[in-house]
Every structure is written in structure tokens, then in C-alpha cells.
């Protein structure tokens, strides 16, 4: 029987330069004496979309050095969210964490994130919007504006403080309940929060300092932002369809009543006018 209780899933596309520091820092943090989670109960799964940049060789070398890390290479699919879903499906642990490869999610927070999940806390959320947390000054202004705008648009859907975060964890039993996950785009945490109907008191928020990328490039593009808007429309429908249908019917009834009232008042005026002549 496997002794793996925790799985760290890392979506990665052309991240070879980041994989060694990422994996060694994760296991380094887990090996500290005060780590709440033992390193031997943790696996790291890199889900790579055929980067062909040496990532496979790096992970295999790390494995030979004794790190419990493996790589899944997808050749027919692409995308951050679908890579995370694939990793979660293959994870052995009951407590699953998602983090970026680019070290913007500091590996030193991994033990606390993993330990924060429990039967009552089904979701762990690494948040950049907690009191006292500072975002690295190197994070460009336009990214801050996009992030804040995206967060505001999601406010009616969840009360989580940072639903845009790519640093989050979910218990397997809850993940398995999710239906119709949106595998397009970047916002898998928001999708899970809404579709698994995670109540606020089941979310363990872990404040963390968001770093800057020093190696490789961000894959966030205009297309990703458009996909987010599509995803929002879908989630609003998912969450509020009953209210939306009710309001549409109400407006329709009001419209018909007003139209009838207007027509009959015109009709009344017409017949009065006719009777005058
Ligand atoms: N497998 C796979 N991985 C991908 C793909 N696109 C991106 N990734 C991986 O997903 C992680 C995040 O991608 P970035 O391109 O570095 O994203 P970002 O711009 O830094 O955005 C991050 O921060 C945002 C918060 O501002 C988050 O909202 C977003 O989800 C992400 O975590 C990285 O490890 C990257 O390699 C893809 O198509 N396939």
C-alpha cells in the first residue's frame, strides 16, 4: 500500500530551468524538523505539455537522486487548467496541491499549505490579499490591475479572498465530486470553488508573498483573458441560472402587462376620438 498522502501537482510548459530549484526547495522545506508534513508522504507530479526543453531529463535525474517526483508528458492536449485536472486525477494523495513551476509560489509554503487541508477544510487557498502580505514590487503594474479586475468580477461567485490564485489545494474526495470542469484557461481554482460548492468555512486561507519570475516566461495572453471572461459567463449561469430565469420571466410578464395596458389606453383614446366625430 502506498504511503503517499500528499500530492503536489505542477503544470509546466517550458519550465526546465525552474524544475530543479522547485523540487529541491519543496523537499528541503518538507525535510525541516518543524515541517508539519513528512517528506516521505509527499509526491510531486509535473504535468508538461511536450515542452521538449530537457524537462523530462531533469525530472528523471531528480528521481535518480531520490526525490519522489515524476513527469507526465501530454502530447495531444495543451492548457494550464486541463494539466492540473490531469495531475489531480493521477495523484495518489488525498490532499492535493497545485502550484506554478516558476517559483512565484514559494516552495517554502508547501508544508503549511498541505497541512492546512483536513476533513473540515476541504480547500486550501494561497492568498496574496491578506493583511500584511506584500506582493513583490517586481510584479508589473498591468498584472496587478488585471488581477484586481478579475478578482472583482468574481466577487459574486465566491467570498474567497483570492480566487485567481494558482496556489491552492483540494481534498481528493471533494475534487471527485466536480462535474463539467472548465479545462480551458487558467482559473481552475475558481472553477473548483464554484462547481464543488465549497462553503467559506471549508476554505483554509494561507497568506503568502507572491514572488517574481526570474527564469522562463509567463504564458498569460490576451486569449487567456478572453477565456476567463467566457468562463465567468459560464460560472454566473451555473451559480445564478435559477435567478436569471426567474428575472427573465418576470421582465417578460411585466413587459406583456405594460404593452397590454398601453394598447388598451390607445384603444380607449381611439374609440373616444371616434365617438367625438
Ligand atoms: N502543462 C501546461 N502548463 C502550463 C501551460 N500554460 C502555463 N502553464 C504553467 O502554469 C504555470 C503558470 O503559468 P504562467 O504563464 O507562469 O502564469 P502567470 O502569468 O504567472 O499566472 C499565474 O499567476 C496568476 C496570478 O496572477 C494566476 O491567476 C495564474 O493561474 C497563474 O498561477 C507555470 O508553471 C506554467 O509553466 C500549458 O499550456 N500547459
TrEMBL record:
Any one of the GO BP annotations: dolichol-linked oligosaccharide biosynthetic process
Localization (cell): Endomembrane system; Endoplasmic reticulum
Every Glycosyltransferase 2-like domain range: 7-175
Gene Ontology terms: cellular component: endoplasmic reticulum membrane
Superkingdom field: Eukaryota
EC number: 2.4.1.83
Main location: membrane
Residues that span the membrane, as ranges: 236-263
Gene Ontology molecular function: dolichyl-phosphate beta-D-mannosyltransferase activity; metal ion binding
Gene3D superfamilies assigned to the protein according to its UniProt record, in alphabetical order: Spore Coat Polysaccharide Biosynthesis Protein SpsA, Chain A
Pathway assigned to this chain's UniProt record: Protein modification; protein glycosylation
Keyword Coiled coil set for record: no
InterPro entries associated with the record: DPM1-like (IPR039528), Glyco_trans_2-like (IPR001173), Nucleotide-diphossugar_trans (IPR029044)
Catalytic activity: a di-trans,poly-cis-dolichyl phosphate + GDP-alpha-D-mannose = a di-trans,poly-cis-dolichyl beta-D-mannosyl phosphate + GDP
Enzyme class, first EC level, given as a word: transferase
Cofactor(s) needed by this chain: Mg(2+); Ca(2+); Mn(2+)
Keyword Isomerase appears in the UniProt entry: no
Keywords: Endoplasmic reticulum, Glycosyltransferase, Magnesium, Manganese, Membrane, Metal-binding, Transferase, Transmembrane, Transmembrane helix
Subunit details: Component of the dolichol-phosphate mannose (DPM) synthase complex.
Membership in a protein family: Belongs to the glycosyltransferase 2 family.
Summary of the function given for this chain in its UniProt record: Transfers mannose from GDP-mannose to dolichol monophosphate to form dolichol phosphate mannose (Dol-P-Man) which is the mannosyl donor in pathways leading to N-glycosylation, glycosyl phosphatidylinositol membrane anchoring, and O-mannosylation of proteins.
The protein, known as: Dolichol-phosphate mannosyltransferase subunit 1
Organism: Lentinus tigrinus ALCF2SS1-6
Lineage, top ranks: Eukaryota, Fungi, Dikarya, Basidiomycota, Agaricomycotina
